[in-house]
Write a structure and sequence with these properties.
It is a single chain. With 614 residues, this protein is an alpha/beta fold. It has 25 helices and 20 strands. The longest helix has 22 residues. It binds thiamine diphosphate. Thiamine diphosphate (TPP) binds next to α2.
C-alpha cells in the first residue's frame, strides 16, 4: 500500500499537493488499477492512459459542482478513485460500475457505456447553464476514436452556435480505438501531433514575450504564423470549428495539463485541448499493444500477462462466428465483411488479415456501417456486417429505412446477444428482437449451439429479400463444436414429442437447449433456431397443445415472447401461454449467472418451475 488512501480518497487533498506529490499519487493509482484489473478484469489500457489527466482534472475542477463527463466512461477508474470510490469491487455484482454511472455517485453526471454521447450531452448541459445562470464548468473527455463518430461530429458542428456556456473538450489522443486508429480524422490528428506549427504551444512563447514587455512582437509573430499557416496548410478541422484549440500537449505531464486547464477556464469561449497520451501507460505489454488485447482484459498474471482463467477446452461463440466468416469468404467470392471498431471483440483479426481488400473496419460508426452495407448489397455483393447487439441499437433507422425497405440481402451477425455479464446495463444485448421484430422483411436466426451457428453463417442465402440476422450469444461451448460433419443439416427447430402430452416447451438459445435436454421425455419439447417467420409445421404443432411454455433468457419479454404470444393469438390458439423472458428493464452487472439468477431465468429455476406445472 502506498502513502495515499486510494480506497477512500478525498479530492480536496489535491489542492495541497505539489507537482511531485501528484506524480507520486499518479504512479500509485496506476499500480492500484493494474492490481484491481489483473484480478477482476476490466478496461486496462484506456484507464492507465488517463491517470495523469484525471489527477489534473480533479485538482482544477470540482467534480461535484462542475460537470466532468467521460465519453464511454470506460476510462473513469482514476476519477472514481479520486472521488472517494473503492474500485476493488469494480464490475462485480453490486460493486462499482466499469463506466460512469449517475446511480453510483454525485460526481458522475451521466451514465455512459456507449460511445460519443458526451459532447452532445455536454452542450445540452451548457445550454441549460446559460438559461439558468449557472457558472459551473462543463468538461468533456473524449478519445480520438469516439471523437470521430457521427454523433460527436454533429454536436461539434453546433458548438458555440446555440446559446450556451463555454465547454472544455479534452481530446484524449492516443492514436488508438480498441486497436489502432483508422480513417482520415485519425490520420489528420496524427499530422497535427507531429506538425511544427502545432508542436509549440503558443502560450510558452507568449509568456516569454510578456515577461519582457514585448507582447506586441509576439502578436505580430502570431499573425504571421497564422498567415503562413493558411498559406501553406489547408485549415484543420479545429480551425473550422468555432472554438479555440490548445495543444497538442503531453497528457502525462500533470502540471502542463493543469496550466492548460487553467487557461481554458479563463477563456470565455469553448475550447478543445488536444492531449497526447499513451494507451496502457506504465504497463509495458499494454503500451506496446497495437491489436487491442489490453483494452478490455480478462484477469491476468501481472508479470507475464498470461490470463489466470484459461479454458483451453472451450471456445466462444464469437470465435466460432469469426472462423465461419473466414470459411465463408474462402468459398464465396462475393462476400465482404464490415466491422464497426469491434474487429478484436468479434474475433475477426484473422479474416481481416487474410482478406484486407474484402474486409472494412469503419471505426465507431454503426450507422455508417449499416448504410455502407446497403450500398454494397445494391451493387450485388454479399455484405456481412458484424455488430454487437447493443451498439446496433444506434442504427434503428438505417435498418428499417434502408435495409428493410429496399429489401436488401445482407447478413448481419449480432454479437453478444443476451445477458453479457460484467459490462452491465449499457451492454446487455437484450433489446434487439424488440427492435427488429417490428421491421418488415427481416429474418432472425438464433442458433442453439456452435455447430448451428457455423452452419447458419455458411448457408446464409442472400435471397430472403431483406436482412438475415444471426444472433450470437456471449457464451462458450465445447471445442468439439467447432467442427461440422459434412452432412450437418440446418433446421428451423428440433422437435421431441412425448406421447399423450398436450404441453409444449419452446426453448431459445443455449440455455433453452439446456432446459430442452432436461425436460425431454417429460413434455413435448422444441428448441428453435429461427425467431421470425415461424414455419407452418411449427404452427401445426403449437395448435395441438393445451399449454405452451416459452423460455427465452436472451431478450426482454416485449421481444420474442410478445411475438409468439401475438402469433398464437392470430393462429386462434386457445390454450394457455406462459413465458419466461427478461423483464423490460436495465439489468445491472454481475456474472452472467448472477444476472440470470437475479431475473429468475437461470436454467435450474426455470426447469424447476416447469416441472411444478407438470
Ligand atoms: C456506440 C459504441 N460502439 C462501440 C463501442 C465499443 N468501444 C468501447 S471503447 C472503444 C474505443 C474507444 O476509443 P477512444 O475513444 O479512442 O478511447 P480510448 O479507449 O482509446 O481511450 C470502443 C470501440 C462503444 N462503447 N459504443
Amino acid at each position: 500500500m502506498g502513502k495515499n488512501n486510494l480506497k477512500n480518497f478525498d479530492y480536496h487533498i489535491l489542492q495541497n499537493m505539489d507537482s511531485s506529490q501528484k506524480n507520486e499519487l499518479a504512479e500509485e493509482i496506476r499500480q492500484h488499477i493494474l492490481d484491481v484489473v489483473s484480478f477482476n478484469g476490466g478496461h486496462l489500457s484506456s484507464n492507465l492512459g488517463v491517470v495523469d489527466l484525471s489527477v489534473a482534472l480533479c485538482s482544477q475542477f470540482d467534480p461535484y459542482r462542475d460537470d466532468i463527463l467521460f465519453d464511454v466512461g470506460h476510462q473513469a477508474y482514476t476519477y472514481k478513485i479520486l472521488t472517494g470510490r473503492d474500485i476493488s469491487t469494480i464490475r462485480q455484482k453490486d460493486g462499482i460500475s466499469g463506466f460512469q454511472d449517475i446511480q453510483e455517485s454525485d460526481a458522475d453526471k451521466i451514465s455512459a457505456g456507449h460511445s460519443s454521447t458526451s459532447i452532445a450531452i455536454g452542450l445540452g448541459m451548457a445550454t441549460a447553464k446559460k438559461l439558468q445562470n449557472d457558472n459551473s464548468k462543463t468538461v468533456i473527455v473524449i478519445g480520438d476514436a469516439a471523437f470521430q463518430n457521427g454523433l460527436a461530429l454533429e454536436a461539434l458542428n453546433s458548438i458555440n452556435e446555440t446559446e450556451q456556456k463555454p465547454v472544455i473538450i479534452i481530446l484524449n489522443d492516443n492514436g488508438m480505438a480498441i486497436s489502432k486508429g483508422r480513417g482520415y480524422i485519425s490520420k489528420g490528428l496524427k499530422e497535427i501531433r507531429t506538425s511544427v506549427f502545432y508542436q509549440r504551444s503558443a502560450g510558452r512563447f507568449k509568456n516569454a514575450f510578456d515577461r519582457r514587455g514585448l507582447t506586441w512582437i509576439y502578436n505580430i509573430g502570431k499573425h504571421m504564423k497564422n498567415a503562413l499557416k493558411s498559406l501553406f496548410f489547408r485549415p484543420t478541422l479545429f480551425d473550422t470549428l468555432n472554438c479555440d484549440y490548445l495543444g497538442p500537449i503531453d497528457g502525462h505531464n500533470i502540471s502542463k495539463v493543469e496550466t492548460f486547464l487553467k487557461r481554458a477556464k479563463a477563456i470565455d469561449k469553448s475550447v478543445i485541448i488536444h492531449i497526447k497520451t499513451t494507451k496502457g501507460k506504465g504497463y509495458k505489454l499494454a503500451e506496446e499493444d497495437e491489436d487491442g488485447y489490453w483494452h478490455g482484459a480478462s484477469p491476468f498474471e501481472q508479470d507475464s500477462g498470461i490470463p489466470t482463467k484459461n479454458h483451453p477446452e472451450t471456445v466462444s461463440l464469437s470465435h466460432l462466428a469469426g472462423d465461419a466468416l473466414m470459411q465463408r469468404l474462402n468459398e464465396d467470392p462475393l462476400s465482404v465483411v464490415i466491422s464497426a471498431a469491434m474487429v478484436k471483440g468479434a474475433h475477426l483479426e484473422e479474416v481481416f488479415c487474410k482478406y484486407p481488400k474484402r474486409c472494412f473496419d469503419v471505426g465507431i460508426s454503426e450507422e455508417y456501417a449499416i448504410d455502407m452495407v446497403a450500398g454494397l448489397a445494391l451493387k450485388g455483393l454479399h455484405p456481412i456486417l458484424s455488430l454487437y447487439s447493443t451498439f446496433a441499437q444506434r442504427g434503428y433507422d438505417e435498418f428499417l429505412h434502408d435495409l428493410c425497405r429496399m429489401e436488401l440481402n445482407v447478413l448481419i451477425i449480432f454479437d453478444r446477444v443476451g445477458l453479457v455479464g460484467r459490462d452491465g446495463a449499457s451492454h446487455q444485448g437484450i433489446f434487439d428482437i424488440a427492435m427488429l421484430g417490428s421491421m418488415p422483411n427481416t429474418t432472425i436466426y438464433h442458433p442453439y449451439d456452435g455447430k448451428m451457428l457455423i452452419k447458419q453463417i455458411l448457408d446464409a442465402s442472400f435471397d430472403t429479400g431483406g436482412p438475415e440476422i444471426i444472433r450470437v450469444e456471449r457464451s462458450y461451448v465445447d471445442i468439439c463444436e467447432a467442427k461440422l460433419t459434412p452432412r450437418y443439416i440446418l433446421r428451423d427447430f428440433e422437435f421431441l414429442p412425448k406421447a399423450n402430452s398436450k404441453k409444449l416447451f419452446l426453448g431459445v438459445g443455449l440455455l433453452g437447449k439446456s432446459a430442452y435436454d432436461s425436460l425431454k421425455g417429460k413434455l413435448n419439447c422444441i428448441i428453435l433456431n429461427k425467431l421470425s417467420k415461424l414455419p407452418s409445421d411449427l404452427d401445426e404443432i403449437m395448435l395441438q397443445q393445451d399449454e405452451i411454455i416459452l423460455y427465452d433468457s436472451t431478450s426482454v419479454e416485449l421481444g420474442f415472447a410478445s411475438y409468439v404470444s401475438l402469433h398464437l393469438a392470430k393462429l386462434g390458439f386457445t390454450g394457455k401461454f406462459t413465458s419466461y423472458a427478461l423483464p423490460v428493464k436495465f439489468i445491472e452487472k454481475g456474472s452472467k449467472q448472477e444476472e440470470l439468477m437475479e431475473t429468475n431465468l437461470d436454467v435450474q429455476s426455470v426447469v424447476k418451475k416447469i416441472m411444478e406445472i407438470l
